[in-house]
Amino acid sequence: MKSINRAAIVKVYSWYAPIYNLLFGRVLQSGRVELAKLVTGNFAPRLLEVGVGTGLALPHYPGASQTCGIDISLDMLQRARNLLNRRNLNNVNLVCADAEQLPFPDASFDCVALPYVLSVTPDPKRLLAEVRRVCVPKGRVLVLNHFEGAGVWKAAERLTAPLADWVGFRSTMPMDILQSPQWQIVDVRSVNLFGLSKLVEIRNSHE
Question: What are the backbone angles phi and psi of residue 170, rounded to the nearest 5°?
């Protein structure tokens, strides 16, 4: 799997911030909405969104949840703050933080959502370990991401893989990175145009 540089990610998403919604808003929004439906279907009093970006998923979460959104990019977070102000979303707190070193105690959240973040973090395994740590035992982890495909898609993914630092994400992410004896994959479904993303529901099982 192609390595990715943290400094490069911060730089790229500083550039993306003003145009992120235009490039990745509508085309990926159906996946965000489906993720939010899973959050709503099993109420989580304390919700963490990792990689909140410009906040496109935030209006779709339950208003009764206390939601914390983190991102490593201050420029992206500023757009999210603007969205919160426009929508009067007073139940959301935004924090600039590295997802691989979450600034929260163990078992802080009932549900952790990861929309399109696994492919943009330098060490996905470390991020997932942190997610397991801050999620309560028996809590839910919802992963929305593009994973390696097959056939013509796999060929395209391999061609773009060397550009990870330039475009700000990996095109090759193996599905088996989610396998862990510390949690249970409950459901996997295809979302977005042509089913190019997967929405994975996981039950945290660590004690």
Answer: -90, 135
Helices (H), the chain: 6-16, 20-24, 26-41, 74-87, 124-134, 151-160, 164-167
Task: Give 131-192 as a DSSP string.
Answer: HHHHEEEEEEEEEEE-----HHHHHHHHHHGGGHHHHTS-S---GGGG--TTEEEEEEEEES
Say how many CA atoms lie within 13 Å of 24 toward its Cβ.
22
pLDDT tens over the chain, length 207 residues = 455 778 878 888 888 889 989 988 898 899 999 999 999 998 899 999 999 999 999 999 999 999 999 999 999 999 999 999 999 999 999 999 999 999 999 999 999 999 999 988 889 999 999 999 999 999 999 999 988 764 444 544 454 443 333 334 555 678 899 999 999 999 999 998 777 889 999 999 865
Q: pTM above 0.90?
A: no
Beta carbons of 165 and 5 less than 8 angstroms apart = yes
Across-strand partners of 198? 145, 190
Burial of 176 (0-12, 13-18, 19+ CB in 10 A): exposed
- The answer for 2, left when phi > 0, alpha when psi is -120 to 50, beta otherwise, is beta
Could you say which architecture CATH assigns to the domain 6-204?
3-Layer(aba) Sandwich (3.40)
